[in-house]
């Protein structure tokens, strides 16, 4: 939790087509998500998989270059599982789940 009361998460991406961690849990409310690339070569993206999530989260990171970090902020009001993926490598299985627990 940040000093401003916003939940903070960090997810890493690398050259092996996975998110670390691939599963995260937050409560309803504001979230600040940082995606940190520890990749040497690959460029990644981050988005909540369109369609099928309890609530649409449209904030995304289009490009994260090797060694870079990008942050998005959003609010989740509905509990449930939210699928996310790398828009470049979804076909390689680079996906994850953010579980939102009701307060």
Automatic annotation (TrEMBL):
Coiled coil: none annotated. InterPro entries: BlueCu_1, Cupredoxin. The keyword Metal-binding applies. Keywords: Copper, Metal-binding. GO terms for molecular function: copper ion binding; electron transfer activity. Residues 14-100 form the Blue (type 1) copper domain. It comes from the Bacteria. This is Putative copper binding protein, plastocyanin/azurin family. It comes from Blastococcus saxobsidens (strain DD2).
């Amino acid at each position: 939790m940040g000093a401003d009361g916003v939940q903070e998460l960090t997810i890493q991406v690398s050259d092996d087509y996975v998110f670390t961690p691939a599963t995260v849990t937050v409560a309803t409310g504001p979230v600040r998500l940082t995606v940190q690339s520890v990749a040497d070569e690959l460029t990644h993206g981050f988005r909540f998989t369109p369609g099928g999530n309890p609530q649409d989260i449209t904030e995304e990171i289009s490009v994260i270059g090797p060694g870079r970090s990008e942050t998005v902020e959003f609010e989740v009001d509905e509990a449930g599982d939210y699928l996310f993926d790398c828009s470049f490598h979804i076909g390689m299985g680079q996906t994850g789940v953010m579980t939102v627990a009701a307060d």
